[in-house]
Structures are given as C-alpha cells and as structure tokens.
Amino acid sequence: MHEPSGAAMPLFRNASIRSKLLAIMLVCSVPVLFVVTYFIVNQYLDKRKQSEREVLSAVQSIAFEHVAQVEGIRSLLIALSQYPDIRLKDQAGCSRILNLILEKSPTSLNVGLADTSGKIVATGLKQPLPIKYRVDDRKYFREALRTGKFSAGEYTVSRAALKKPTPTLHFALPVLGHEGKPEAVLYAAYDLNSFGRIFDAQGLPTGAIINLTDHRGTVLYRYSRLGVSDLVGTSDHPDLRQHMTGPAEEGVLTGIGMDGAKRHFGFKRLRLNPGETPYLYIRVSIPEQVATSNTRKAFLISLAVFSVAAVITYFLTRIIAGHYIVRPVRRLVNASKSVQDGDLTARSGLPYSSDELGQLARSFDEMAASLDQRIRQISQAESEKHRLAFYDPLTELPNRRLLRDRLQIAMLRSRRQSTGFALAYLDIDNFKHINDSLGHSAGDQLLKIVAGRYQAALREDDFVCRLGGDEFAVILHDIQQESAASTVIQKLLEATCAPMVIEGRELLITASIGVAFYPKDAEDTATLEKDADIALYHAKDEGKNTFRMFCEELTRSSRERINLIHALQHALDRNELCLHYQPKIDNANGKVTGVEALLRWTSPEVGSIPPDRFIPLAEESRLIIPIGEWVVRTACSQQVAWKRAGCDLSMAVNISAVQLKSPELIQTIQRIIEETGIEPEQLELELTESCLVDRPDEVIKVLEKLRALRCSIAIDDFGTGYSSLSYLKNFPVTVLKIDRSFVKDLTSSSSDRAIAQSVVNLANNLDMVTVAEGVEHQHQQAVLEEIGCNFVQGFLHCEPVPPEEIPDIVRARNGEEERVRKASIN
Ligand SMILES: Nc1nc2c(ncn2[C@@H]2O[C@@H]3COP(=O)(O)O[C@H]4[C@@H](O)[C@H](n5cnc6c(=O)[nH]c(N)nc65)O[C@@H]4COP(=O)(O)O[C@H]3[C@H]2O)c(=O)[nH]1
Q1: Where is the chain membrane-spanning (predicted)?
Q2: Quick one: CATH architecture of 391-550?
Q3: Where are the domains of the chain?
Q4: Do 678 and 639 touch, CB atoms closer than 8 A?
Q5: How many Å lie between the centroid of ligand 1 and the Cα of residue 740?
Q6: Does the beta carbon of 807 sit less than 6 angstroms from any atom of ligand 1?
Q7: What is the pLDDT of residue 536?
C-alpha cells in the first residue's frame, strides 16, 4: 500500500491524532513562552542596569559626601594653621583649641599638632598620649613635610582611641613659617566608620556592601548592614582590582565578590590632588540575586503559570480533542476497518455536522452506502451471470457446467469417505416428436414439469441438472450398489410416466436412463460421463422407457459402433456400397412399374451390415449426406441405363431426415437429374413420416421445391409417426406407403386392416396413390387389392436384388403378367 512520504515530520508520522494535537499545542506555546521569556529577560536586564545605576549613584554620593568631609577637614586644618597658638606651638593653647575642634568634628577621631621632628605637640584628645608616641613614621606626616601640601596617610587602626580600635585615615597639613617652610604639621584622624554611616543613609538593599581599599589593594574598610567585615586587612579579590588600574575614575562592573556571590559593583577612585596617587578606592556592591530578585521571581511565577496553563491546556486538549476529534476519527477508522473486512453495512454513526469531521462522516457513509449498493449490484450481476452460466433458464435446474463441478466434488468426497456415487443420464423418449407436434411452448412446459418431478423424487443432497434439450443428469450420492440405484432410477421412470396435462391435453411420456458408478465404472468424471452416455444410448436402443446400468459389454458395443462409423467413412471411397432394388408391383395389372433402391454395405472387416444398423450411424455422423447423394446419383443413373435398355421403371430412393434438413438437398437433386438425364417424374423420393413432423412448415417448403423439380414424394412407414392429418393435406405428397407393421397382421387384426383402409381412403381423397410394404403372403396381397391399395412391395413378389437381375425379373414378370392377363381376358 502506498504510504504518504511525509518526510517533514517523520517523528510524528505514526503518532496518534491526540499526540499530534498535543504536539501542536506545545509547539504553539513556544512563541508564548518565548514572548514571556523575552519580557522577563528584558526586565532582568533592566533590573541589572537599574542595579548598576544604583551602585554607581551610591558610590558617587558616598564619595561626594566623603570628599566633602575631607574638604571640611582640609579647611579646618588650614584655619587652625593660622591660629597663633598653633603657630607658636603652645601646647596648652593648642590642646585647648584642638580639644574644642575635635568635639565639634563628627568624622575625626583625633586632631593633633606635631613638630617637624614628629613629636606630638598637642592633640584634641582629652587624655594625653604616651610620651613615646610620635608621628614621624607616618606617611601623612612625611608627605605633608615633603610636599608642603594637604596630604593623606595610610590606613591605620587608631592608636588614639585605645579603648576601641577604630579604622582611620589620616590627613595632614604643614604649618608654614614666614619663609614658607614647614614649622609644624597639623593632622586629623578620619574615622572610616563615617563611610558606614554615609553608606547606611543610601538606603541600599540588603546584601549591599561598601568596600574601601588602598592603592595596594588592601581592604581598609568593608561594611554592610551586618557590620564591619572581618575581611579588613586582607587583600582584595584580584579579579576586582581592574577598576584600580583601568582608565575610568569611576564606573560599574559585574563579577564575583569576595563572598563568592555575583554582584554589581560601582567603584570610584579618590585623589586629594589631581595627578596624585589615589588615596582611596571606594566600591559599593549589590548582590545580583538581590538586584534581580523580582525578575527572577517574576520569571519563576511566569514559568509556574505557564506550566500550570500548559498542564491545564494539555488536559483540556486531551478531553476536548478526545471528544470532538479523536472519538469521531476512531469511529470513522473502525467503520473503515469494518468496510475493509467486508461489512459494507458499517456506518460512522456520527452526526453530519457542518465541520470537516461531519463532512467526512457524511462522505464516508455515502461512500460506504454507494459501495454497498455497487457491490450488491455487482454481486447480483455476478449471481445472475453465475445463474446463467451454471443454471438452465427454463427449468432453473443446474446445467452441464455445474454438473462437471459437482462431479468433481462428489468424486473427492467419495475418495475421502471411501464411498461411491452413481451418475444417471435421462432422456425423454420421443420428446422431439411431442415438441414438434404440440409446439415448443408445450415442450417447455413438459420439461419444467419433468424437472420438478425429478427434484421431488430425489433426496435433498442428490443432484439433478438439465444437460440441454430433453436430457437430464442426476448424481446419486453414497450409492455403490446397482440395486440401490435401481430403486431410485425406477422412481425417476415412474415420475416421468405419471400423466400430465399440458394445454388441456393429457400426455403420457417415458424416459430412458443410463447409469454409471464411481469408482466401479470409472475413476474420473469424464469417463464416468461417457459411460452414463453409453448406458443411456443402450437403454434407448433397447426400446426406451427403461434404464441400463453401464458395463464393459456396453463399452464394447459402443466401441463397435464407433468402429463402424470409422469404417463407414471409407465405405464410399472403397466401393463397399452398392444398391439393391426391390420391384414395385401395380395391383391394377400385376406389372413391375418401378423399383425402390435399397442401400447395401459389405465391409471387408465386418462383412455384410444391414441398413437398419448402419443408416442410423450414417445419420448420426452425417455421413448420410455424401452417401445419400451417391445413392440418388447411382439410382438415377441406373434408371436411365435400364430405360435405355428398354426397361422403363420409376425409381424410388430413401431420403433421410438429415438429408432433408441439408440446405444443399434441392440443388443436389436438381444437379443429379440434370447430370443423369432421368425424367424427374420417374424419381420418387421416400421420406419417413417422422421427417415431416419435425418443423413441418420448413419441410413443406422443401417438398414444394422438390415438387417444383417434378419429382414424386412418398411418405414411407405411414401411420407409425405422429403426423397430424390436418398437416398432411398441406404436404405436396404424391404417395403414401403403408407401413410393414400394418401389412403384417392385415388379415388377423381388424384394426390394422382398418388403418390400411383409412390410409387408402385418405390417399384417394387427397389425390395420392398408396404402396403397401412388406407383402409376404398372398392373403395380404388379396386384402390390399380388396381395399384398393394401388401398389405393393414385398418378398411375395420379389426381394431386393442386385441391379443386373432387375431387367430379367421385369421381363419375366411383365411378360408373364401380360400372358396371364391376355389368357384371363380370353
Ligand atoms: N420383413 C420384410 N421386409 C421386407 C419385405 N419387403 C421388403 N422388405 C424390407 O423392407 C425395407 C423397405 O425399406 P424401408 O422401409 O424404406 O426401410 C429401409 C430404409 O428406411 C433404410 N434404407 C435402405 N436403403 C436406404 C437408403 O439408400 N437411404 C436411406 N436413407 N435409407 C435406406 O433402411 C431400411 C431397411 O432397409 P432394408 O433392410 O433393405 O429393408 C427393406 C426391405 O428389404 C418383406 O416382405 N418382408
């Protein structure tokens, strides 16, 4: 079966509709998912940017505030440097002012004055510093002296506030003398915790961290809402130091923080004076997770909603597709399978809605209905064809073809069951005569009645068929014995004999039956049929209304028949045929007025064969056509030869029914008349009465043509056939020959005499002459003369003799008769 290629989606080629629909649903969901994802990613990126802006802004504002504080310190130190006590390095005055200043400065942990050797002159602290405390090792001190400018120091943990170590960053300003030389250094310790406070004021989200490092990357201060980190003093993460060396003074970046979390960083470098090394690197960071937590949440919610929607859609699609698509399609598939399996009454059972499935259901149902109708029509046509092929239309019995099938089946069944069966051939006796005399319609009715009787007489599993014409065949199953078959055959004969009324006339018919047995007589059906046929032939031959079981003897006689036909085929060529002539005597004067030509055959193999035996075979094999032509030609030639020799006789020739039906008969006779030169009036064509009853209208036409040739026409064996007297007057017949059977008992049987008399009267009335056949005795001759029969033939007068004897017989007879006649006159 052809499979659509469907190379596009081989994965789904064999998937169910439900799966395909679900796949479609899922595929259609992808854009939705894509859009949702797109918006969420966008939101995420926005959040990220927002977070970066936030950290940058935070770092900028923290730096700004810090710078402002440092500037405050710078201004303060500048103002102090102008103060007289400071310039004079008056310890008490300095302490007082510094003390006062320190109290007012929230970001400074200490404010102090050191001389140029680094020795502390005074501090703003309440408690005095230890004597050995010096600042000459501090970077801010040395830088201030070196540069003469406001300088920053390095990170320290305040030693001033001993109770609580505090991260500090020192700034220093040299106090310059009149020559501009540094005379002392003012310094302030900046509390790095100030960053924490500024940082807190930014309102950054949880997890935000501020990280301060120096130019070496050492963490100076690290603070979050959780407090100051213990990572202070450690080295900054190398990956995060890029901002220290990069070109940008401030900016944002994303990376892994020191806590291992991904963070958004805002950074800024701080310098006291342009071109100087930055004294502080500020970094503020927010964990990305915190920055994008909303979008992540939104993403997860969307994903959850999408998943729930997908699950709901999945189940809804399953339910809806199952109800509206899958179930109808399954019903269509099932209906299709049923149709495929031969159930053409199968229908979808779906409502014919206006959608595609409704239309498909309607189309399918209509297609199945039309298929059903077509198949019915075809099967009706087939069964009609089968009926015509295997059944006889007249009797509705099976025909010969079906017989052959049934014989095969019966044979196989018998072989399997080790049984046997009988085949009987039946033939209605004289059906042809009945058919022709009563008409075809009556003949058909007869056959139907007989067929019905045979069916009724047989068992149900026996088989009866019509072979054609008046022939029937019967299979009798499970019969091996002749005795068992005889009972059934007898029943069939009786069924045939039962009186029947057709067209108001009561008919009595008989049948002949031939029977052969399987496997006794034949082991194949063809031989069995032949055997039954042979048996039937012999039943007919034996006088009809009887049956004959097949035996080897019959085959032998049949074989003889066939051999005889073969021999007859060569009889003409081999000059084995000859004619004898029987004189015909005129009762009026006792003279021989004519002869009847009678065919004789002497075969070198078989010897002399009587015409009653070989003429039927010649008719059967249609050899009678050439033989009959030879007879007419020989007889006519003989007649002409005798006539020339002074022996003028009429010539009677037998014409068989087969010759009469031959379309060449007229031409043949005409040609022979012309060729031989016989006077046509002297040629008498004898036809048996049975020739006339078969298609009388056509026979009349043939006879009229023969009469037109001026031949005489005689009806042979008159009174033995079934010819209707009403027809007789229409036949252009000139002679009626009274059959030998009536002549035989003419003197003893009053009915035979009455028949003979009737024939003579009929002939007289119809202007015909009569000839009596088979006259053997004088008393028969006397009666025939008495009843007025015109001519006689018979052994009493002369047997059929060879042609050479005829002239002498005629001379003797006609001379004698002349002498007798003259004597009787005298
Ligand atoms: N018992 C008895 N028989 C007598 C007597 N007189 C004559 N017959 C026989 O009666 C038969 C008369 O011929 P059929 O009735 O035409 O009957 C003929 C005819 O029907 C047929 N037949 C003979 N020759 C021909 C022929 O050339 N063509 C055709 N178509 N049929 C022929 O064969 C039949 C028999 O012919 P045959 O044996 O020659 O028999 C002849 C003849 O020998 C008699 O007194 N007693």
Answers
A1: 21-41, 298-321
A2: 2-Layer Sandwich (3.30)
A3: 11-81+204-301, 92-191, 391-550, 565-825
A4: yes
A5: 10
A6: no
A7: 92
pLDDT value, residue 816: 59
Q: What's residue 12's pLDDT?
A: 64
Q: 10 Å Cβ neighbour count for 637?
A: 16
Give helix then strand counts, H and E, for the chain: 27, 27
Give me the CATH topology for the region 565-825: TIM Barrel (3.20.20)
Whether 11-81+204-301 shares its CATH topology with 92-191 is answered yes
User: Per-residue DSSP letters for 770-782?
Assistant: EEE----SHHHHH
Contact 511, 488 (CB under 8 A): no
Q: Is the CB of 583 under 6 A from ligand 1?
A: no
Q: Is 631 in the pocket of ligand 1 (CB under 6 A)?
A: yes
Q: Given ligand 1 and candidates 580, 585, 596, 598, which is best to mutate, with the most ligand atoms within 8 Å of its CB?
A: 598
Kindly list the distances between the CA atom of residue 208 and the CA atoms of 26, 59, 204, 289, 435, in Å, as whole numbers in the listed order: 42, 11, 6, 11, 129
According to the model, what pLDDT value does residue 1 have? 40
Residues of the chain with pLDDT under 50: 1-8, 162, 820-826
Cβ–ligand 1 contact at 656 (below 6 Å): yes
User: Taking the model in full, what pTM does it have?
Assistant: 0.48
599 — phi, psi (to 5°)?
A: -75, 140
Asked whether the beta carbons of 229 and 266 are under 8 A apart, the reply is: no
Three-class secondary structure of residue 363 per DSSP: helix
**pLDDT for residue 6:** 43
Output the CA 575–ligand 1 centroid distance in Å. Answer: 21
Task: Give the pLDDT confidence of 130-168 residue by residue, as tens digits.
Answer: 667 788 888 899 989 998 889 988 877 765 554 567 788
Which residues face 267 on adjacent strands?
251, 283
Distance 648 CA to ligand 1 centre (A): 22
Q: What is the pLDDT of residue 821?
A: 47
CA dist., res. 192 & res. 165, Å (int): 11
Give me ligand 1 centre to Cα 598, in Å: 6
231, with CB counted inside 10 A (0-12, 13-18, 19+), is: middle
Express the helix, strand and coil content of the chain in percent, nearest 5 each. Answer: 50, 20, 30
Q: What is the fold of 92-191?
A: Beta-Lactamase (3.30.450)
Torsion of CA 777, 782, 786, 791, to 10 degrees: 60
pLDDT at 236 (0 to 100) = 81
Whole-angstrom Cα distance, residue 207 to residue 297?
18
DSSP string covering 243-297: HHHSS-SEEEEEEE-TTSSEEEEEEEEE-SSTTSPPSEEEEEEEEHHHHTHHHHH
The finding on whether 800 has its CB within 6 A of some atom of ligand 1 is yes
Ligand 1 site, residue 774, Cβ cutoff 6 A: yes
Q: Please state which CATH class domain 11-81+204-301 belongs to.
A: alpha beta
**Amino acid at the residue 233:** G
